[in-house]
Every structure is written in C-alpha cells, then in structure tokens.
Amino acid sequence: MRDYVRECEFIAMFDADFQPESDFLLRTVPFLVHNPDIALVQTRWKFVNSDECLLTRFQEMSLDYHFKFEQEAGSIVYSFFGFNGTAGVWRISAINDAGGWNDRTTVEDMDLAVRTALLGWKFVYVGDVKVRSELPSTFKAYRFQQHRWSCGPANLFKKMLVDILENKKVSFWSKLHLLYDFFFVGKIAAHTLTFIYYCFAIPVSVFFPEIQIPLWGVVYVPTVITLCKSLGSPSSFHLVILWVLFENVMSLHRIKATITGLLDTRRVNEWVVTEKLGDANKTEPAMEGLDDVQVIDVELSTPLVPKLEKRRTRLWDKYNCSEIPVGTCIIICGCYDVLYAKKGYYIYLFIQGLAFLVVGFEYIGTRPP
C-alpha cells in the first residue's frame, strides 16, 4: 500500500488460500468504475473442502447462511455489511479517507469497513461471483478462528460505540442498523441467547416444577428459525439437527471470546493464523523422473536441525475443559427429568449433553459427513 499501489485506484485483496477466477476483476471493478460512491465490492466464498468431514460441512452451513442472507440483506437494505477481509475489491481513496488500516483490534477488516461506512461510503455484495477457498479442517484451528471472529467484533463494538453515536454523516436508521443489527444482535446477543436459553435455562428448569416453558418456546420457534437458517445449504439439510447441536456447543466458546473482547482481558489481542492444510496432503507426489536422479548417501556427524524435545502435554491441553463439565451437567439434568421432573426434555438434554462431550474430547471433525 505504500509502494507502487499509490499509483493505482483499486486494490483486490485475497488470503493465501483463496483462488479467484480469471475474470474476477472484470466482474467486480466495473461496480467501482461506474459508481464513485462505492468503496467496496465484496464477493462470496466457495469452499473446496466442504465435504472433507463433519466439521467442514458445519462451517459451510454457517457461512452459506452468512453470505446468502446476512451479507445480501446488508447490501440491499442499508448498503452496509462487514468486510470479510478477503475476496473483495476496495477503492484506495476510500481507505485513505477512512484513515487507513488500524491494528487496534484483531478484526482490522471490519474496523476499516465501519469507519468507511460512517463517512457515507457504500458497499456492494456480488453473490454470483464466487472465489474458491479452504475451510479449517482441524477443530483446534477452528476454535482459534472462532475466538478471533467473536472477540474482535465485541472489542471493536466497545471502542467504536461513541464514534457511531456521535456520527453526523449517516442517517439514524443506518446507525441503528450498525449498532443493533450488526453488532449487538449479530456479534453479541445471538450466541449469548443461544447458550443461556438452550444450554442453561431449559436444563435447569427441570429442577423447578413451577417453571413451565411452553412447547412453542422449546420446539416450534426454534424449529422455524433453524429451518430458515438451513435454507442457505439445502444439500446439507439432513445434517441440520447435528449442526444446531454443534452451534449450541460453540456458543459457549463464543461467549467467552465475546466477554474477553468487551472487557479487554488477556486474550483480547491474541492472533493465531488459521491453519489450512492445502491440497498437498491430498495428492500423491509425482514419481516421474526419479530414475534420472542420482541419490548420494551422506553421513552427517552433526544433524542440520537439532532434534526437538517433545513438550509434555498437560491434561487440560488435550481436552476442552469447559465443554466437558457443561455436557456432564446437562446429562445430569436429563437424568433428573426422567426420574423426577417428568417434563419430557430428557431426549433433548441427553443429545445436547452428548454433543458437548463430543466437542470436549475433540471427536468432531474426524469423520466424513
């Protein structure tokens, strides 16, 4: 950005694992050329390894909903949505107008998008332009990614709340959409409500006979919401129940990350690059021409790379210690419902508790869908 890019008008951004098509610029840059008030053209992600395991299939379902509904709605109704950090084309003058990049949070892409929107710039989401990318296929990498994606927005919300309220360049409805819909509901309340209601209120209610949660609150409304969210990935509809259980479990992890961001605690600026395995581990190396290579045996007195000592793994590093006790407590609530409460929640409680234990012992992501 400080070198030859100064002479350019637009810049396309991609993460290392993204593979744009050859006509990507032809299908995106015209939006910027013919509309001087547009700062960003965001395209959709397409996943090359979504069928690798259950973990990648669940991620595809969540991200498909995000792109098909959340990004589309933000683009059509309010002309604002969060920049996804990759697969987008920016107008460089808009970046400079907003003050450039800022490293005060781990979501510098969202930070730039919010500051640019507050200056009156518009964004466009082009869903029919898809860029191939890869999903993290190990649960450890996925947890680090979700921590950043939950902690960063909460921290940014805290730091930009006053700026958004005092802004005079955008309408009241745009600020309301940004504060309430985008930040509060989308980044904080959604997973907080999910965990408190489905993983705390319903299980604990079996110990209090006077608490009666109506059937529409336990079954009907959640079912309608789930079916609407599953429309983003119709090919994975048969996995919708497992996906909902997994999202309920991950809500605990996201709540912890959100609290970290709001309180500016120790892990607020933690940045761990999301591990991607690439295609190298799925293809066999080429064996052609090996007969022409002469192999020479060399005896080394000193190894080129010293042998690494194996670090002793602690018990709490092997498992996710927050999910295991929560899952155990939910199963205990299910047993109490069977023996004493008789409220009929036990099937849900057993399944949800088992889902917490599966994630706690990191069994997720090892089986094909």
Automatic annotation (TrEMBL):
Provide the transmembrane region boundaries.
178-208, 220-246, 345-364
Q: Which GO terms describe its cellular component?
A: Golgi membrane
Q: Cite the Glycosyltransferase 2-like domain residue spans from the record.
A: 11-214
Please provide the record's keywords in A-Z order: Cell wall biogenesis/degradation, Glycosyltransferase, Golgi apparatus, Membrane, Transferase, Transmembrane, Transmembrane helix
Pfam families cross-referenced by the UniProt entry: Glyco_trans_2_3
According to its UniProt entry, the protein's GO biological process terms are: cell wall organization
Which EC number applies?
2.4.1.32
Report the membrane topology from the UniProt record.
Multi-pass membrane protein
The Gene Ontology terms for molecular function here are: glucomannan 4-beta-mannosyltransferase activity; mannan synthase activity
- Predominant location category: Golgi
Entries under InterPro entries matching the protein: Glyco_trans_2-like, Nucleotide-diphossugar_trans
* Location in or out of the cell: Golgi apparatus membrane
| Biological function | Probable mannan synthase which consists of a 4-beta-mannosyltransferase activity on mannan using GDP-mannose. The beta-1,4-mannan product is the backbone for galactomannan synthesis by galactomannan galactosyltransferase. Galactomannan is a noncellulosic polysaccharides of plant cell wall.
Give the similarity note: Belongs to the glycosyltransferase 2 family. Plant cellulose synthase-like A subfamily.
Q: What is this protein called?
A: glucomannan 4-beta-mannosyltransferase
Species per Swiss-Prot/TrEMBL record:
Aegilops tauschii subsp. strangulata (Goatgrass)
